[in-house]
Amino acid sequence: MRGTPGPPRQSARVDPPDSRVARKATVVARPTTSAAPGPAAGEPALTGLSALTRPGAAGHAGEGGHAVESRFPRLTAEDLINLAAEGPDTPIHVAAIAVLDGTTLGDPAGRPRLAEIRAAVEARLARVPRLRQVIRPSGPFGGRPVWVDAPRFRIADHVGVAELPPPYDEGALLRLAERLLVPVLDRSRPLWRMWLIPGLPDGRMAVMFLLHHVVADGMAAIRMVTTLLGDTPPHPDPTIGPGPTPLPETPPHPGPTIGPGPTPLPESTPHPDPSWRPRPAPRWRALVADRLRDLRPAPPVRRTGSPLPGLRMLGAAWRSPRTSLNVPLTPGRRLVVLPFPLAEARTVAHRYGATVNDLILALAAGGVRALLRSRGEPADRLWLNCTVAVSLRAGSAGPDGNRTGAMLVRLPVAAGQPADRLRAVTAATARAKGEQSVTAANGILVALARLGLVRWFSRRQHVTALVESNMTGPVTPIRLLGAPVRRVIAVGNLAGNVALSVVALSYAGELTVTVQAGADGFPDLPTLVAGIRQDWATLAAGCHPSGAGGVPAGGGPRAGAAAGDLRAGRNRRPMT
């Protein structure tokens, strides 16, 4: 690793078994209602190379643009790309970290009431059936893999406790999250994990919920968390009853002693849910028959424009400038979190005729400019491609699955002033919405996945330098497992040589931006973060010449778990 060494391995201790994961850089834009997709406040989509494609219709997507409904829940083309791109250095995960008021979730010693929380989560799993399913190959001529109920499900394999390392603050929480993100999830089990993380100041406790990207995209992951753990799930199962299952009124359970690394829990805790039985997996003959039915002609899917502009865009993007941003990933990750006041971000964006998503892209461009200049690379004539996610999720879409597309937006790294970058980004996103059809590259990537070449291709591409995602979370404060949620942090994934992502999530008046980078390729990540903060301070000051109006001390957003937290005269060490 170049630069700053990572945290000592022995300082972060994790509860249950191994948690393996995968790769991908997350991207997003807001949900769109027009035919031409565009970035807004929406949700993380594909990433890295698969972020250049839009998934097909639900069920099977015919080769000729036809959509057919399968009798069985099959993986999409995007899912196949994600699985093919996965490797030890490329976990394909999305994650949400919620910081809660932990007083109601802990015992008198402050330890999570683990047995009770596991029982409560298991009782609610009927609300999200995908969390008890695994991927099963369909066999010869059976078509794409299908989701089937796991033959054996243990809640202890998925819900556990992770210990904060010193100094037991939000910076330590991010260091722990970096570790939990990396291991590849075991595909023989349902592809998700959840950790309770006690020990934060003021009695707070964090919950980290991690999913493989084939289970859900970013917005779906947020919906899953609120459906599974929230007080008012949006899609309650009628068999569950009118409200969430309360924590059982039993004496607090301190949970098992946790060692310095992943440790299996005792087989005796907790007991399996007696009301759940796995459904039989479909027989091979049924899968083949279903596949043959899918091959019959079906009504064509309505396209959002010709693929030729998208192909021309990909051709031009392939000739984009080479920079040090595109570096093959190694397993390590670095996370930085920047909170912004959402109302202030909207004010700044609207002053320049931009959206909040445009503002995030412009801030990312400013950070990249500062980083490249510090590395001695020319930036004054540089425009770089960024993959921006676009939500294709309708309001009635279920709480799981991937329903995202993406487009390429050229970032004006060359522009010297933050206002000029924001204006240029606004024009670039409008141009991308009008010109691009992101379905064009999907067939190419699926073919590469079938040939086993996706990983080779993703580590050598120069189509995109970074990925961006912007999700809209709950507008008002929510509770998870009965505890008030103070902050929510969204984390995407990285893939191939796309080693930088910017993921934003709005929640209860705060816009939290997570910058994720490969640890070895970005030892100087604080330089990029400082560039973002400086651009924000400049743009916000333009809206409030007096210097007031939401620009915190330090000339930038209050960087909580990321770049420092100045509160009531208490100067904390920057957390990066």
How does this model look, in words?
With 576 residues, this protein is an alpha+beta fold. A hairpin with a 2-residue loop joins strand 16 and strand 17. The chain has a seven-stranded mixed beta sheet, sandwiched between helices. A six-stranded mixed beta sheet has the order 12-19-18-15-13-14, sandwiched between helices. A two-stranded antiparallel sheet has the order 2-3. The protein contains twelve helices and 21 strands. The two termini are 16 Å apart. It has helices at 77-85, 114-124, 170-181, 218-229, 284-294, 307-318, 342-351, 356-374, 418-435, 442-451, 454-458, 525-543; strands at residues 13-14, 28-29, 43-44, 60-61, 67-68, 93-101, 133-136, 146-149, 159-163, 192-197, 204-212, 333-341, 384-391, 404-411, 466-472, 479-480, 483-491, 500-507, 510-518, 566-567, 570-571. The protein is globular and about 60 Å long.
Descriptive terms for the model:
disordered N terminus; 12 helices; seven-stranded mixed sheet; disordered C terminus; alpha+beta; six-stranded mixed sheet; 576 residues
Fold topology:
Elements: E1 13-14, E2 28-29, E3 43-44, E4 60-61, E5 67-68, H1 77-85, E6 93-101, H2 114-124, E7 133-136, E8 146-149, E9 159-163, H3 170-181, E10 192-197, E11 204-212, H4 218-229, H5 284-294, H6 307-318, E12 333-341, H7 342-351, H8 356-374, E13 384-391, E14 404-411, H9 418-435, H10 442-451, H11 454-458, E15 466-472, E16 479-480, E17 483-491, E18 500-507, E19 510-518, H12 525-543, E20 566-567, E21 570-571
Parallel strand pairs: 9-10, 13-15, 15-18
Antiparallel strand pairs: 1-9, 2-3, 4-5, 6-11, 6-17, 7-8, 10-11, 12-19, 13-14, 16-17, 18-19, 20-21
Helix pairs in contact: 1-10, 7-12, 8-9, 8-12
